[in-house]
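Support request, please re-run this one:
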Amino acid sequence: MIKKSKKILFTVLLLAVGILLIVFAAGLAFRMKTEKPEEILRAYFSAVEEKDYESMYQMVDPDTLINLDKEGFIQRNSRIYEGMEAHNIRIENIQEISSRGKTTVLSYDISMDTAAGTIAFSDETGFVRTKNRYLLLWNDGMILPDLTPSDKVSVVTDKAQRGRILDRNGKTLAGPGIASSVGIVPGKLQNKEEAVKELALLLDMREETILQKLSASWVKEDSFVPLATIPKVSELELMAENPGQELLQEQQRQEQLLAVPGVMLTDQEIRTYPLGEAASHLIGYVQPVTAEDLEEHKGEGYDTTSVIGKSGAELLYEKELKGKNGCEIRIVDQAGNTRKVAASVPREDGQNIQLTIDSGLQQSLYEKFQEDPGCSVAVNPYTGEVLALVSTPSYDNNDFILGLSDTQWKDLNEDIKKPMYNRFRQIWCPGSVLKPVIAGIGMKTGSLDPEEDFGNEGLSWQKDSSWGDYHVTTLHEYEPVTLKNALIYSDNIYFAKAALRIGAETLADSLEQLGFGQKLPFEISVAESHYSNTDKIETEIQLADSGYGQGQILVNPLHLASIYTAFLNQGNMLRPYLRYRENPSAETWITQTFSPEIVDKLMEGMTGVVNDPSGTGYGACRQDVLLAGKTGTAELKATQEDSTGTEIGWFAVFPVEKDASRPVLLISMVENVKELGGSGYVVQKDAEVLEEYFGG
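Re-run finished. Output below.
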């Protein structure tokens, strides 16, 4: 029984093998019948496109390969085609020129896109019919015309210069600079173990990293092996009257580096940011491309040596800044001489990008607030040009170019003040700086008479007993309790009452008409302002709190600045913009937010805020420029009795007269001013900034 089963199994196997042989033979016959020279030619160049060099070799008559075995053929073709970045290969106009015996000759036109542009030429190729199929009579000229077996193909890149980022006056905010590259010449290195330890300490690197660099396959005894990029210390800087402690420490470090036998410093061109910390959140930085970048931006001209904008304006204007590398594809003889240039494209340097930023104002704002978590925005209120965007504390974007050490990266990420956090893009509780907006809404909707005396309620008030223990508090008593005085004294009670008169639905609709819940039309994306965590103002207490800029209201500083421009442009809110124009002109974002009559009433109060001795912004009063504005202090606490909460301090200020020599609308915010004197702290800092800005 067992023998019989084995016999049946053997018979089945024989039948299966027979069927396979028949199928293979039929396929081979079909292939011989269908694989004509034209089809082989197309299949060959299709394999080039797919980088399938093994299949290419199988189509070629090996007798035509001069001094090339299979490995040599694959290596030569792959290096040349991939070095040229050949793709989109097109074969056209295939014609049979002759057919004698077993040999057929075809002519054809070929074109391909490369790193140096399109290469197109006409060629003739022979095919020989063997026992089973046609084979291609290969020659080097199939790759490039006039290429001989002894030639090489060289691809030379002319790197494009990245465009500069400039301020409104042409000062560089990002551009080329020089750093020092620290490296080792292995053949001159003495006592390797001790030298590596010392270099690791001086450069804040791991010893393993240095050893890995020294053991790379390309390294020879006389090679310069770069380890790190560090700031260049020039004699001119050292000769300054006060060179600064950091510069002197860097000079000392470089002297210690050069004392290690085998260490060299060479100049290296890098991207540099002259304002450093003062503009890092705005300008951003570039980094070497990653594999992910190359995949995401395939076909856009990046290679492994490219840099790409990672944040700020460097990222925002990447396409214009990056430029386009030049490239030449050369046929080079054995002596290294260029016999022919097969294709070339000229280098196109990146565009310079000019911003509306005033670097002096940007620097001044940073210096005054650099230790305070907060932000400042400044715009020209008549054009919408953004003059400054500052987030503090900050980081030095130059460090990202030189290369952050492990210690630096850890310090940046663990700093409780969050220097990497871009605060001018976020939304914050505005407090009293929103009161002019609430007053404008009240007058526009007919809910508020600016001349009405609301009555002196003291320093604490609630609508009625339905509020339980909740009271609205204010800091000053005054009379009469009219709009102008309420703005000057920043009276929370007045504006809580005003909000109740306006009503929740009307207030919500009015804030939406001022851009709340909308994307700010600005080049840099910022968070959307909102008036509630839900789609409406839920309670009477939330409504009252919203009247003086608290409750659940959160506002982006640049959006707030746009609202304030309505006070200086016949009620029209301007769209802020960052790209400089030779002839700036205002673009209205939202029209007719407030009537001229309403604006006049608001300006009376805001002028008093800065110029009345009782005004909360009196610390910024000037004799040469008439200023107006509004302070704000937003309390952030869990309950009304909470004494551990923080206070956000605000100040918005601008010249009243349209013909002011340097028009500016400045809004600054500091996250916690509770122990610093409230919003008065921000007023004093901005007063110092304006003193410099107006040339006092």
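Confidence is low (pLDDT under 50) at residues 1-5, 23-34. The CA atoms of residues 153 and 331 lie 5 Å apart.
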